Amino acid sequence: MSKQSGRGRVVGLPEWDRCAVMGVVNVTPDSFSDGGRWFDTTAAVKHGLQLVAEGADLVDVGGESTRPGASRVDEAEELRRVIPVVRGLASEGVVVSVDTMRASVAAQALAAGAALVNDVSGGLADPAMIPAVADTGAPFVVMHWRGFLEGGNVRGVYTDVVAEVVDELHARVEAVLAGGVSPDRIVVDPGLGFSKEADQDLSLLAHLDRLHALGHPLLVAASRKRFLGRVLAGPEGAPPPARERDAATAAVSALAAEAGAWAVRVHEVRATADAVRVARAVEGARAEGSAPGAGAPRPAHTATGEPATATPDAHRGGHGPSGTEGVR
Question: Where are the beta strands (DSSP E) in the chain?
Fold first, then answer.
């Protein structure tokens, strides 16, 4: 199975021929990455349209920061921030995702034109979320979550982070299915940076195949996160600011695309849009190279330029158990 065929399709959303790019619009004053830059409705809509122009396939609109220690906004304020932006982008034909933990915000955003609900709590923060999503038939992102990022929840304790995230996501998906959400409308997200240390985030990225085993399309949201800062800083250095982690984000996007992710969620779109397209081109070349007869060597020539007589083994080595088909 090719990576593309293994990405899965999310019913209710367009089908892309590669890893999709989800651009981020934070309508907040306190996001860890770009808080306050798009707090005004007009600026937020303009930014969302710019992300699409740069290559975003869909735009994720959120009105509540989920950074460690962030205070929750009340429902009325979240609605005030989010709904006009969702409506403005949807009216321009943008595929909009709403990033919220509240059922009321999700429902009103869907009514305003959103196509997808992205809940970092996977429905745990608001018991009304799953019934609300099920009633609308909207696609739903189920992220691995161990609670709000306060106190001990900022640094999760794991014995085997990959196995535990897979198991906990599986249990959460089962609860979402039991709540009436259709299996072909569920996306899973390992929750990079949520109650996880840098080495744990890297372990999850190294084992995305284990998350694919859950049987649902995979969203990878690594953009500008702390673990990238730790990688870039090295053992002794200070992590660069969030906005200086975009090249590292694009690298993760390429790796996630190559590993079969359905979508990547990023703040700076252009580099990632290029990265996933290159990953798709390499994937296509690999598939062509694996086709029967592809890459067969040309006949050898003698010193006089005449074709040499091929021996029975002359064309071996291009394919088969020891050939290049499995080389990556």
Answer: 20-26, 58-62, 96-99, 116-119, 140-143, 186-189, 219-220, 263-266
